[in-house]
Amino acid sequence: MLTTNIIVAFPKIEAVLRKGGFDISALCTTGAGVLHAIESMDGGIIVCGYRLPDMLYTELYQCLPKQFKILLVASEAHWGDRDNANVVYVPTPIKVHTLTETLTM
Hints:
Blueprint: E1 6-9, H1 13-19, E2 26-27, H2 31-37, E3 44-49, E4 51-52, E5 55-56, H3 57-63, E6 68-74, E7 87-91, H4 96-104
């Protein structure tokens, strides 16, 4: 199991990750919820889609401290941050093995 904080802001991913042995530090439904959750954390990975109800992942990323990374689950058309080392991309449709393998990295 990972010791890194994992914040999930993507519907239905939680069960897949828990089944894969990952501990989820926080479940959020909005970008604001993510920002509130990370206040008590030193770093971690945020699993989210391209669009949260209140912001795009790019807006969320701009608000994050450098010790947080984003694991973006989105279609190829929404993957625009190819040069950003703090944003890792997993394409949809999601393959469980790819998601868990990428998160483990």
